[in-house]
Structure formats: structure tokens, C-alpha cells
Amino acid sequence: MASASLQFFAFILALFGVFGDITATLLPNWKVNADVGSNIITAITQMQGLWMDCTWYSTGMFSCTLKYSVLSLPVYIQAARTTMVLSCILSAFGICITTVGMKCTKLGGDSDSKSHACFAGGVCFVLAGIFGLVPTSWYTREIISSFLDQTIPESSKHEPGGAVYTGFISAGFLLIAGVIFCTSCFKRQQGAWIYPPKEHHFPSTEQESNAGYNLKDYV
């Protein structure tokens, strides 16, 4: 029962991780630049994401421009696009597989099949967490290095946006969920290896008595 509850807790964490991963991938605020002019009416907030760049004006207007050209983008943005999409796909596969492999569900067949499915789903979550952690770390490093560069003007410097923090948290959730699923299945298999089922040996006294009885019949 404790293992089933732990798996259910890991599944909830994985759901939050999947939703956060998809949200971070689509959000346009991976880095934010707040440029305030001389008049409060001209204050704008520029946001840059993986797929589009948006500008929010203090008047309430909001405009976005899609990044159509892939080759013109920096390498870290291209890598972030690829790894975040892979993270979303792997985490979605992990949700489907662990739904079959969890103890609290009636899918997946016998206990060995459910254990293998649970372990495979945990591996998917771990890989999804790694794929989500790499681009957010790389993107944050580029923002910090650009912010500390003295040759770049103040108006062109950016700070990490909400999508980066969402990506970090989602990657952590996926990693924790994957580790829980893998270790829970490993403990169950390890227990089967350490304590193998006992074989029952029945005494052969009855056979010996029958054999003796048959020999006496022939005397």
C-alpha cells in the first residue's frame, strides 16, 4: 500500500511536470527586458521566447512576432527548441506508460509486466527532466553572461523570465517522479531476488511404505 501511494504521489508530480514543461515551451517570456522611457505612457516590456518575441505596452496593447527562420537563430535557442519538444514528448509517453504500470490501476497484466512498464515510464520521466534541465540552464547562462558583459548597452540587457523558472521547476518534478518510479520497481524486483519463493519438499515416507508393501506381497 505504501508503494502504491508513493507511485500515485510521483504520478501527480509528473502531471505537474508535464503541464509545466508544455507551458514553459510555449511561453514567450524566456527573457524579459523592461525599458522605461521618459513618459510612463511609453513604458514597454519586451519578451523573447523560443517561438516568438512579444512586446507589451503600458497602454494595454500586446504584439507578437513569430520566429520563422530557424537558421538565423542562435545555437542555444535552436537547441532549446529541440530539447524542450523532446522533453514534452518523453514526459507524455511516461504518463501513458506509468498509467499502465502503477499498482493502483488494473491495467498492464501481471505484476512483472506492470513492474517493467513502471520502470520504463520512470526512465522516460528522468530523460524528460534532463532534456528540460539542459536548455533552461544553457539559456540562463547566456542571459547572465550577456547581462554581465560591459560592452552591451543597458537597454539591450535581459533578465530570466517566468518561462525559465517554470522550466526549472517542471524538470525537477519530472526527475523526482522518474526516480520514485524507478526505485519503487527496483525494490520490488530486488525483494524477489533476495527472498526467492520457497520450494515445498514433501517427504517420501508414503512412497517408501507403498514400496515396502508391494515387496511384502511378493514374499
Q: pLDDT under 50 segments (min length 5)?
A: 36-42, 188-195, 205-209
CATH topology of the domain at 4-27 and 71-194: Butyryl-CoA Dehydrogenase, subunit A, domain 3
C-alpha Rg, in Å? 29 Å
> How many H/I helical runs?
5
For the largest beta sheet, what order do the strands appear in spatially? Answer: 4-3-2-1-5
Roughly what percent helix? 55-70%
Class by SSE composition:
alpha+beta
Strands, count: 5
CATH architecture name of the domain at 4-27 and 71-194: Up-down Bundle
Sheet with the most strands, sense and barrel status? 5 strands, antiparallel
H-E order: HEEEEHHEHH
What does this structure look like?
- By secondary structure, this protein is α+β, with helices and mostly antiparallel strands.
- It has a domain at 4-27 and 71-194: Butyryl-CoA Dehydrogenase, subunit A, domain 3, CATH 1.20.140.150.
- It contains 5 helices and 5 strands.
- It has a 5-stranded antiparallel sheet with strand order 4-3-2-1-5.
- Helix 1 packs antiparallel against helix 4, helix 2 runs antiparallel to helix 3 and helix 3 (111-148) runs antiparallel to helix 4 (162-194).
- It is elongated and about 60 Å long.
- The relative contact order is 0.17.
- The chain crosses the membrane at residues 84-105, 117-139, 163-186.
What would a concise description of this structure say?
By secondary structure, the protein is an alpha+beta fold. The protein has helices spanning 2-26, 75-101, 111-148, 162-194, 205-218, and strands spanning 31-35, 44-48, 52-57, 62-66, 159-160.
